[in-house]
Inverse folding.
């Protein structure tokens, strides 16, 4: 029979992150809930994809840990990327529709646009603008497309002014 001491911390909640793209689930992975204040949801998870993903400007690999920030009222997610030794690699940002949490599942719809900011802030890259243009979102949902472009612009401004490093 197990007992819980009043002094023992409660077990960490786990959320299932469901990243959806073009109506299909791209990846699902478990993440430890760090905080949910009703608007911003922060989780921590190890690199969830198999093997190494080398983008040229950063490598995501087994042992990396992501602290991911999602919002219910913003069109992006900001992911702090740490190497296995705890060194900050930088911030990978996804332009998404606002996150939706239903119970233990956090669903995030990826809108193709991304941004990378290196740990020292010297490299800021807008990514996948060609994929976004080819996605057809501008024709299918012009309001969402405009919100996505504004979100990428906001992320770039935050990266260039050092806002990520102050959070």
């Amino acid at each position: 029979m197990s007992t819980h001491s009043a002094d023992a911390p409660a077990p960490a909640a786990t959320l299932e992150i469901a990243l959806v793209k073009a109506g299909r689930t791209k990846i699902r992975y478990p993440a430890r809930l760090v905080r949910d204040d009703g608007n911003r949801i922060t989780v921590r998870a190890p690199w969830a994809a198999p093997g190494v993903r080398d983008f040229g400007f950063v490598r995501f690999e087994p042992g990396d840990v992501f602290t991911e920030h999602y919002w219910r009222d913003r069109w992006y997610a900001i992911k702090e990327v740490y190497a296995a030794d705890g060194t900050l690699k930088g911030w990978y940002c996804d332009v998404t529709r606002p996150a939706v949490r239903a119970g233990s599942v956090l669903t995030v719809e990826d809108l193709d646009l991304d941004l990378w900011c290196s740990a020292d802030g010297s490299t800021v890259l807008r990514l996948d603008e060609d994929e976004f243009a080819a996605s057809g979102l501008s024709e299918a949902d012009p309001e969402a497309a405009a919100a996505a472009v504004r979100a990428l612009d906001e992320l770039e401004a935050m990266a260039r002014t050092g806002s990520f490093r102050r959070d």
